[in-house]
Amino acid sequence: MIEPINIDVEALNLASLAPMIIAIVGGLSILVIDLFKKDLSKTLYTMLTILFIVIDLGAVISYVGGTRGFFDVMLIDGIAFLGQAVILVASILFIPLALTSKRFHEFSYPEFFALFLFMIAGFQFMVASDNLILIFIGLETASLALYTLIAMHNRAKSFEAAIKYFTMGALAAGFYAFSVMILYALTGSVEIHKIGEVLTANEFASMPFIILSVVMMIGALGFKLSIVPFHTWTPDVYEGSSAALAGYMSVVPKIAGFVVAIRFFEFFINSGVTWVQDILLITTIITMTVGNILALVQQDVKRMLAFSSIAHAGFVMAAILVGTTQSNSAVFLYWILFMFTNLGAFTMLWVSRHKGKNVFDVRYDHPYEKFAGMIHIMPMGALIMALFMLSLAGVPPFAVFWGKMYLISSVVNAGFIGLAIVMVLNSAIAGYYYLKLIIYMLFKEPSQNDGTVYVKNASNTLKTIIGFSAIVVLASIFLVNPLLDIITHHVQISGF
Length: 496
Description:
The chain is an all-alpha fold. The chain is built from 20 helices and four strands. It is globular.
């Protein structure tokens, strides 16, 4: 007779699932409301989405349970807390943009908000587990929702972007599954901490298979992080997305990927497996250098920001290959400051537009010429955009400068002097294309093109979000130390 299985509900620690359940219930609730009552105002769905995200964030902040939960597949440590906090705060900044314009019809669909909440839940599962199967489920849930959100922009470029993203994502999913399969065959486990224990105990036997697995995982995570040579989808997908969604994509999917990378590569680095660091070192240098060089030659501001986000991802990868408490803290400090700056920069592309299509360029929507003389037309808008560009360039004392300084410091303290020099040189290169936009906005005359009228498109919601981002960038000099203390505390309790 088969003995019944007794499950201790208290030991399951179901509270560890609460944040994700809130997001999923929120998405389902929106679909149910739409099922019974059609054509409700998008304002209602926007407010509901914000409400569920805020409740989700409250559940993350107030969590006091154990580190493990739900059959030990959940891992709610300091890294998970920081990752979820970044995801949710970025989402709270993004979703009110649904109220800013009638031009973007995707916001009129309830499905947009439901998919957005499902995507958030997927990213939360990625950062709150070290079980490679659950991470994969979270990755695919978030990715499939994001593919659809991009396509809902309903432009020819949007469909092309969604297809490219889906195709590359399918390839990355194959890499990930193949990597996990090898590790399971070698260790009999799909949990990262157990895999590390078995490989360390076996002194990393079957090295050729381990190398193949690591390379496959770098390919899978490289797609999500836009790491060269897995970056080719990035500029086209960003260009095909709405400006604000492109800014969101430059922040949230990548912080989820960074957390998985930290967890996966940590035991290799701590075990002194030097060839993993060597692979990551080469990938890091190539990514930040290629991203910056390609950003230099762009004629479109959105594509420039897309390539610059690749360079920023390479910059942060430097911290992951170092693998110290300081470097892991630097990942979150850098990305939190980058989050406000880059979301603000992409959102600024919404503030102004021109009547008519292809006013300046038949190929691009946001050529540099569009911003010429912006200081004469929208003085405050030009100054705020210049502030975001100075921050992204790492000019002191603005936000991203502090992230770069702390990150480079962690690299130097770990003995990677050559890498630190490369990072400084790349920061200097990046300064050129950020300052190029500032020159166009502040020192060139407005372009006259067939009498086209420049249209201001800044609602109160849009002004509030951009203004808040700008205030954070300006006040970063006062925020860095307390923010760094919080980050370091949570990284240390995670055991990194």
